[in-house]
Amino acid sequence: MNSTIDTILAHRSIRQFTNQPIDAEALDFILRSGLAASSSSLLQVVSVVRVTEQDKRDELAKMAGNQAHVSNAAEFLVFCIDYQRHKTINPKVQSDFAELALIGAIDAGIMAQNCFLAAESLGLGGVYIGGLRNNAKQVDELLGLPAHCAVLFGLCLGHPDQNPEVKPRLPIDVVVHQNQYQPLDLDKIAQYDQVMQEYYASRSSNQKQSAWSTEVTTKLAGESRPHILGYLHDKGLLKR
Question: Least buried of 48, 92, 112, 134, by fewest C-beta within 10 Å?
Answer without folding.
Answer: 92
